[in-house]
Amino acid sequence: MDRIPEPLRALWPHEPRWHETDAGRMHYADIGPRDAAPVLLVHGNPSWGFLWRDLAAELARRGRRVVVPDHVGMGLSDRPDRFLRLDDRIRHLGSLVDALGLRDIDLGVHDWGGAIGLGLAGRQPARFRRLLATNTAAWPSPRIPLRIALCRAPAVGRFLVQQLDGFAWPATWMSTERALPSAVKAGFLAPYGAAARRRAVADFVADIPMEPGHPSRAALEAVSRGLDALASHPSLILWGARDFCFTPRFADELALRWPRAAKILLPRAGHYLFEDGGPEAVDKAADFLA
Predict the structure, then answer these.
(1) Could you read off the pLDDT of 195-214 as tens digits, one per residue?
(2) Residue ranges covered by each domain of the chain
(3) Does domain 14-143+215-289 have CATH number 3.40.50.1820?
(4) Would the pTM count as exceeding 0.90?
(5) What is the pLDDT confidence band of residue 5, given thresholds at 50, 70 and 90?
(6) Is the CB of residue 127 less than 8 Å from the CB of residue 121?
(7) What are the residues whose beta carbons fall under 8 Å from the beta carbon of 221, sequence distance 6 or more?
(8) What is the per-residue pLDDT for 6?
(9) 155-187 b/e with 16+ CB inside 10 Å = b?
(10) Where does residue 211 rank: exposed (0-12), middle (13-18), buried (19+ CB within 10 A)?
(11) Which of 23, 72, 203, 284 is the most buried if burial means most Cβ atoms within 10 Å?
């Protein structure tokens, strides 16, 4: 799938761009003037760059360059026949940033994009300027909803997530407090219409390092330690308060790690806070970043 289906181009009109990684091509959108200060927006699971469409458009309208990648295996990116872990994804994001020569980056993260984007920023704090954290976590936590724990169960979890579409499709109604318009729902699901295209969705769930001996546990612990190097960066914690997964307790924990950060809770928004929060959420994020 090299491009979004034609009926959805009104919502995501950006021409595909490609970055080669050791696991295949990473798709990204590059919006706005190329000589402007860059904003990097990093999605999680099971979304893709489409998640950021309204904020990206607003930032570009305000004169910013906005780079929105899809993780390899997600969105419009290639589907490699291999399991990619947290450290791979941080490395791939870093290689894109290097290839584009981005400096003085304003970073926005959501969901497991937080561990990936903040993981890179923690390794290279001087390269990043402002930090926007939305409904995310970048440290080990014992808290996991039962519905996601079920999706991590050996064998049955992968069958549920990949074969039965038991993660990407439910996210279109479990991650919001109000029903998504049909075109928006189709946009979120467009890259994941077949089981073969949902492998990375299942891999992302399996890569949540709940257990101390999990293969990605050490990488996530390193990301957590790297948050200290970012505590002095101007930061905004913008949170959908009705998120069933990354509850406001996660926002509180991040605020303890970043005591200088501004914090805004959107009381009527769920996990996909820009869907529920609409122009209010977009404006708060854009005012901070732009």
Answers:
(1) 999 999 999 999 999 999 99
(2) 14-143+215-289
(3) yes
(4) yes
(5) confident
(6) yes
(7) 139, 140
(8) 80
(9) eebbebbbeebbbbbebbeebbbeebeeebbbb
(10) exposed
(11) 72
